[in-house]
Structures are given as structure tokens and as C-alpha cells.
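Progress against Task 2.4 (sequence-to-structure conversion) is shown through the following example record, which the project officer requested during the mid-term review.
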Amino acid sequence: MSNCVDFYQAEAGTLAIPAARAMVFVDGHLCTFLEVAEVVRARYPEFAWARLVYNTSACDDSEAIGVENIEQIVAMGRSVRIRQLYDSGIGESGPEGLCIFDGWVERIDTKINPDGEVVEIITRDISAKLERITVHGRRVTAGDGATLGLEGIEAIFNEDGAGNAAKDSVKYNGKDYTVFAADVRKAKRWSCGEIVHYLLCEYLPYGQLQMPSLSQIEGVMRGAIADELDVEGMSLVKALHRCCEQVGVRFKFVSRQSLQGPAERIVFYRDGVGRRVELNCQRTGQKLSVSRMNVWQLESERNFWPVTHRYIGKGELKVYEATFDLIKAWDSALEGGEQSDYSPSMNEDFDSVQDVHRRWCLNEAGDYTGQPYNQGQAFDFSKIFDTENYAQRPRRFLKALSTDSNGESLGYYLEVSYDDGATWQEYSDSFDVLSDECGVWLSSDELGSSMWSAISAGTLKFRMTAVVESDERLNVAINHGPVGSAVEVVEHLVTLPRKFEYRKVSGKSIFHKSTAENIGTADEADDVETLMDCVRREAQKARVVIETIEVRTPFIAMHYEPGDRVVSGPDGRDILGSRRDSRSMFWIERMVMDLEKQSTKIKVLRRRIYR
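C-alpha cells generated for the chain above:
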């Protein structure tokens, strides 16, 4: 005795496929005078739409109306549902409907000419309504679980790279979601999932669209933290797209089969991740079978490949803090005058000696190496920049990264030594920082007695603790493909959403790892890991397509969706190449169900998979 059951299907000897027909319901009422010409499913910004044709011959003489009065029966904004009918009964008739499109009347096109009168009705899914919702302002916390809608503040998430999301979610209008923090000092950074959830909860009326939970959205977006995102003044659907685009996620609107609740739901997905569908073509010489072949026509356009795509992200120039010994930046032949000669208020001809004893520079460009200065070789940055790859050029001092006990920058920390560098003290008189080179100019009217004593003894020295900009940027690169081989490499510079910085207090700074009580935490930064994540996301979004395939089926294929991964069965021809190239992914980008020609046109894209 066996508990196995064998099922047998009769061999189909006919090649005829019954014509597919879809029924149109307007506001829940069957409209036999409306025929479905085509249904389109695509990605942003097109999404799903359908074209209906008004068929006067399907109306009784008493029901027929002129095309100019079509809005009497199909008015703008009325809901439209397209269903495929089938018999679900066993032994008796049991008609049921499978919904393939939900939308609203968006446009009516009328043509009257000698050939006849034609009315076409364009219906779109809920994306059309979302395009008419504008995102502006913020909803912020107001304490004790309350919120405030502030229209005067722009809707910018993670503004300037800093978090501005409330740490705890709040409940508003029956929805529990994260809103903006009133005090950014007590905020966290928004994740992409939280932004999407906020936009849907904040701007969609309750019950209009079925939404996934926050945990489901975060799962698709893999918990990615968003970069700065400014959506002020955008439509809701564009704002959702801009957020999803950061992490390579797409979304679509799918009809629900239930007659209760919202007609549609929003689905977030990644191309080729999810269900698989087969597009098959029989081998030459086999008997034609409609159950084993659904490819009638195929056109392919293949781009040049293999190519390695390198995505390069360049941050800001690296900056380093160090303590720099300054040199005399004046002609020593001008020295030796009276003290009054070097005071702007006492010498009418001060301009001729204005730099003497007052201009102290770094000599980074070598301008003071030769005559008449003779101050030695240009300054060597290699031990500060950790590289010898820099240009010998003028630079300028920037404020120090080291801070005081209050967290404020020490600014331009200039020190003076009156004993040839044996001891140092902060210079207390006024000075100007030069804008065209690394240096200072002492701007007090008269130089102090201590300085004149050191000048006479030849023991006066100055040093500056400040920041200098290097010639190397924070730089990361991600390669999609082999490097160092015969394969060509195409480089793409990634446009970054914000600044990525590298700031370091070098070991040449007197404040390096300082433990003094009056010195705070230095304002250092190293955004290399964050930049790497950003470039990686941009590379994933790029989706370099190596082949575009247009497939037409010999019948209506109603249940394919954008994002479905396309494969070929093992028994047929591998005309797509999905079996011979396991490192490529094929997915549906767009499909058109042409009910007039009784065929489906499917656009398939192919790209390489890099892990």
C-alpha cells in the first residue's frame, strides 16, 4: 500500500488560446461599454496605468450617449477596477474576479473625425494622487507625547549631516511613527525606513493605502541611515523616491484582492530580489507547446562589456594641526634702525620697513630660500601629512583643532620665545594672520621692550599652532569587476550628498594627546567609513545595465510585476542568457498588457552582480 498520489494532465493537442478579457468596474458597477486596451506596469515615475476605450456598440440604443457627454457615465476621479473573471466552482458555476488594476480616471481623450468617434479614458493608480500631495514643514515633538505641525520650518532630514529625529516615536491621528525632534541636541539620525514611514503616516489620509510596518520597511532598506535629505516642496511620491534612491530600493503600488479596506498597497522592493518568473523558448525542432513556450518575439540590445566600473568618492581635503616654527620674512638689510622707524605712528615712511621684525612666515613655498632672505629650504610637510605627495605652494593657516576646557577652538595659537626657543609663552599682543601664505604680521603700534631686547640679542623666535590643508582628499573607491587585468576600467566620480572630512591633530602639535586640564577634546574627524558606505550605496544605485531585452508573449500575461527576477527553464533555449551567465541578474523593468493584440510586451534589463 502506498500513500503516494499520481496526478496526470491530459496532453493539449490544440494551439488555440482563448482570448483574455478583462471586465471594468466603475465605482463598483460593471461597465460593459468600457473595453480595456492596455494595462501598463512600470517603475517611478510612470507606475501603473490603463487605457480604456468607450465602445458604443456594447450599449443599448437607450443607453448610448454621445462622446461629448462621456463624463456623465465616467467622470473624472471616479474609481476604476479591472478584474479578470474565472470560474471557481466545482461542478457548478462559481464566477470570481481577480483584480489586475485599481485606479482613478485621470484623463479623457476624445477624437472626432471622418473615420469615426473615439473616446479613450486614461486611468492611473494611486501614484497620481500622491503626486498632488506636497511635502512641506515638519511635525515636531511638543512634550508628553504631543506634537506640533510647523509649516515654517523646511522638511530636511538629517540636516547638515546631523540627526534631527526624535528618539521616541509618538502617536498622531491613530498612527505611531517617528517625528522631528524639537531640540536637535536630544535627537538621533533618521534611518531611510523612518523617513519613508514618516512621509506615509504624515501625509496619507488614514485607510487610503495599505502600508507595511516600520520593521518591514527597515528590513528591505537593511536599516540604512539616511544622508541629508531635503524634500521641501516635493510631491509625496517624489519625496519617497528620493529617500528610497539612497539605498537602491524601489516601490510600486499593487492591487489588493480583498474587497474590504484600501484598494491598493505600497510595496518596497529591490530589483531581482523576490519571486522568480520564467520566460521560456522551446528548442528548435520540438513540437510547439503553449505550456512550454511563452516567448513569441525577442529583441536585444547589448552594450559593450565586460567593463569594470570604479566608483570614486572624494571628500574634503585632509587637514592637520601642527606647531610650526616661523622664519623671518624680511630683508635683513633693513634692520638696524631706531625703534621709532618700525612704528607706523612714528615713521611716515613706514611702508618701506613694514615687514621688519613683524612678518613671520613658514616658507612653505620656498619664497624665502634665496636672496635677500636666506632662510633655508622650503618647509617639509611630509612628517605631518604622512606622505611626500604634496605640492610646494603657498597655503594658509586655519584655526586649531585643539580646544579649551569649554570646547572652543584655541584659534590661531601664536607663541613667542625671547630666549632662542628655550621657553615659550603665548603672544598677547595683536597680530594678523596672512591670507596668501602661512604666516602672521604683528600689528601692534609699537613692539614691546622684551621683544627689542630679544631682537638685540638675536634670540627672538615665533611659532604657530594651527591647521594646514594638505593636497590629499579623503578618497575611497569601489570596483565592480576585476582590476589590474585586461578588462577596461571606467571611473565614475560620485556626487556626494554632504561633506566628508578628515581632521587630525598630528604628533607635531604641542597639544597632541594633551592631558592638561585647560585643554579639551580636539575637533578631529575621520569620515572614511561613512564615505565608504555612501559610495557603496551610490554604486548599488547605479545599476549599470549591460543588456536591454524586449520580449513579447503570444498571450496576455497578467501577473508579472516590475522587479520580478527573470529566469529560463532547463528544458528550453537559453535565449536570455540567464543560465550561461550566473553572475548576471535579469529583472522586469516594465510590462504592457496589450489586450487589443492579445499579447504582453515585457522589458527586461540585465546587469552584473558584484558582491
